Amino acid sequence: MCRSIKTLRPPMTPDVDEDDIRAAALQYVRKISGFRAPAAHNRETFDHAVDAVAEATRQLLAELTVRGAPTP
User: Fold this and answer.
1) What is the pTM of this model?
2) What is the pLDDT of residue 8?
């Protein structure tokens, strides 16, 4: 839980894949909730939060405009 969430936007990280996004979302939810792994009664809520953060991350990365970065 001590590791930092890495920057996912280009050009800092040029090849971001779904695993990177999911790992960052999971780490964020773990940090915020204070749980490395939730109890069974919180699993659905925990997983939903990870999915929501991952989707928000995908949307953010898709919509960011980075000055000076090459366009795909």
Assistant:
1) 0.82
2) 85
